Prior knowledge:
The strands form three sheets. The protein has a four-stranded mixed beta sheet, with helices on one face. With 200 residues, the chain is an alpha+beta fold. It is globular and about 50 Å long. The protein has helices at residues 35-48, 65-83, 134-146, 160-178, and strands spanning 4-10, 14-21, 28-31, 51-58, 92-99, 102-109, 115-119, 126-127, 130-131, 149-156. The chain has a single domain, classed as Imidazole glycerol phosphate dehydratase, domain 1 (Ribosomal Protein S5, domain 2, 2-Layer Sandwich), CATH 3.30.230.40. A hairpin with a 3-residue loop joins strand 1 (4-10) and strand 2 (14-21). It contains four helices and ten strands, in the order βββαβαβββββαβα.
Amino acid sequence: MSRTARVDRSTKESTVLVEVELDGTGQSTVDTGVPFFDHMLAQLAKHGGLDLTVHTRGDLEVDAHHTVEDTSLALGQAINEALGDRAGLRRYGDALVPLDECLVQSAVDLSGRPYLVHEEPDLVELIGTYDTTLTRHIWESIVATAQITLHVRVLSGRNAHHVVEAQFKSVARSLRDAVMLDPRVVGVPSTKGTLTPPTS
């Protein structure tokens, strides 16, 4: 079974292409025009065992918000589509990831219900051209379209680069575990019999 998806998203603010392979080897080709965000998506792929292609052209002359938001929405949608009916999954994943002085804990539930809990310290405003207030919004956007529950807690950390990067590495490891197929799981791992939201 191939667990892949391709999402094309086009608005007046951005044009986004995302391709994801859940059972990949961590390869990535990422170009959003926001270098630090590209670096973070590459971390997500590498440590999540995902093969990821992202090409985004957004209104960076305004700022990076629309570019980052629309890319994150498309990425979450691609993950959701690649998961299919979510049968046979481990469903849950968690990770505790250090990066020098920084320590981040994350947990994922492929629940079919979007919910985010995010705790991080106040950070300097910019890492290069990347607005650090966007990190929470990235997780909000992925959670909304991937239809997952995600908890991210920065337990310690001072350096803004480390704080953000450790979040991406931790979420990657949590997601990697959650999407794994478990041979002991028969059907969908839920007593409800479904992990996908109702359709209208």
